[in-house]
């Protein structure tokens, strides 16, 4: 008993000595000290502060953090199709949008190969990561569109490609041993490039957008808008909007799919800017001491991201920063659902199956009028 009391006394003496040395400012070698560093305090779990002071707190808001973590692990997918005749800067604009070479220009060896005999559809996929968020971006190009003397029915290969992606997704979906997460190759958005003529839409433009607006989200853009004066640009944009209304063409964002008054207010501002007059460039220039993307001319530099020069920033915000998820939701719940209902009706051999491109209410399975929003 006396031995144990003596050992305790020695330990306390050593402990007091170490503490006195530390408090007096003398250096203490951690390797020779018997004391371990105190652990860092752990941050309280989400909702712990609420639970400590509020007994009525349940923690339902924690689901947002759970969804965020799951989404960060899975990553995101975005499939964009670019359509327009050659020479409108489609690849350059896509590279400017994502600040990387996501769309490559085709290199041809002979003049005969510069214009494909038929419309080719090429897909390029890239894995992009920004601040821990991963996204698989697929750019679908359509070289050869609108480059021939006779462009009749040139929209058909593009329509077939879009429907083929719906069919592929449908087959994966109805498979008995389907995958836990079905790869999504459906076209979420189609950017249609309009030549900067300054006059009106061509018959080809009207025909394409009229056909394809029923199966995919179309975002029209005026390519190389720096070739137009501001007055010409405004007149051209207004003319295009009137022609879209006159031909019953619903481009994205469609009025019928506004969820509430807040969405309607935001989307109305976007609809007033359609089509977006854009300029693309991969070159950086020094402007007022800053490095900016732009196009240098004899009379100055056209800044790509300056809204006073062009509407590239508004297009980027629509596609990436504000409406990306909404574009994917409409693709899944409207366009794909219309295709799925029609195909299942055909498979079941129903005599009243709707013909191709007929809009059907996904809830009542009834054919709609021209985007009848009242039943959606």
Automatic annotation (TrEMBL):
Instruction: Give the main location.
Output: cytoplasm
Which GO biological process categories is it annotated with?
cell division
Septin-type G domain sequence ranges:
74-346
In residue numbers, the region (Disordered) covers 21-50
Per UniProt, subcellular location reads as: Cytoplasm, Cytoskeleton
Gene3D superfamilies, per this entry?
Answer: P-loop containing nucleotide triphosphate hydrolases
What GO cellular-component annotations does this UniProt entry give?
A: cytoskeleton
Cross-referenced Pfam families: Septin
Which PROSITE patterns does this chain map to? G_SEPTIN
Q: Which InterPro entries does the entry link to?
A: G_SEPTIN_dom, P-loop_NTPase, Septin, Septin3
Stretches with biased composition (Polar residues) = 21-36
One GO MF term:
GTP binding
Report keywords, A-Z: Cell cycle, Cell division, Cytoplasm, Cytoskeleton, GTP-binding, Nucleotide-binding
Member of which family? Answer: Belongs to the TRAFAC class TrmE-Era-EngA-EngB-Septin-like GTPase superfamily. Septin GTPase family.
Q: What is this protein called?
A: Septin
Q: Which gene encodes it?
A: LOC112264174
């Amino acid at each position: 008993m006396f031995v144990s009391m003596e050992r305790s006394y020695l330990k306390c003496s050593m402990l007091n000595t170490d503490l006195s040395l530390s408090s007096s400012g003398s250096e203490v070698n951690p390797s020779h000290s018997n004391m371990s560093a105190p652990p860092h305090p752990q941050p309280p779990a989400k909702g712990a502060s609420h639970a400590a002071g509020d007994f009525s707190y349940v923690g339902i808001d924690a689901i947002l953090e759970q969804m965020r973590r799951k989404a960060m692990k899975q990553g995101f997918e975005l499939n964009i199709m670019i359509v327009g005749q050659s020479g409108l800067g489609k690849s350059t604009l896509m590279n400017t949008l994502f600040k990387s070479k996501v769309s490559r220009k085709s290199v041809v060896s002979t003049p005969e190969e510069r214009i494909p005999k038929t419309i080719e559809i090429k897909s390029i996929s890239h894995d992009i990561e920004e601040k821990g968020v991963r996204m698989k971006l697929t750019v679908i190009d359509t070289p050869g569109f609108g480059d021939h003397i006779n462009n009749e029915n040139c929209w058909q290969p593009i329509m077939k490609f879009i429907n083929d992606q719906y069919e592929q997704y449908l087959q994966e979906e109805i498979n008995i041993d389907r995958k836990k997460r079905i790869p999504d190759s459906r076209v979420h958005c189609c950017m249609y490039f309009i030549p900067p003529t300054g006059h009106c839409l061509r018959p080809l433009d009207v025909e394409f957008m009229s056909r394809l607006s029923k199966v995919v989200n179309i975002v029209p853009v005026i390519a190389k808008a720096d070739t137009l004066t501001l007055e010409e640009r405004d007149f051209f944009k207004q003319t295009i909007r009137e022609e879209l209304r006159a031909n019953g063409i619903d481009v994205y964002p469609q009025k019928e799919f506004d969820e509430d008054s807040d969405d309607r207010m935001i989307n109305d501002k976007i609809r007033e800017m359609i089509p977006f007059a854009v300029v693309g460039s991969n070159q950086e220039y020094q402007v007022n001491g800053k490095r900016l993307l732009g196009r240098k001319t004899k009379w100055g530099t056209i800044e790509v991201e300056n809204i006073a020069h062009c509407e590239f920033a508004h297009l980027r915000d629509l596609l990436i920063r504000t409406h990306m998820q909404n574009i994917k939701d409409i693709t899944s719940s409207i366009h794909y659902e219309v295709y799925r209902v029609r195909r299942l009706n055909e498979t079941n051999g129903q005599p009243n199956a709707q013909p191709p491109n007929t809009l059907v209410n996904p809830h009542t399975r009834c054919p709609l009028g021209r985007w009848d929003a009242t039943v959606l």
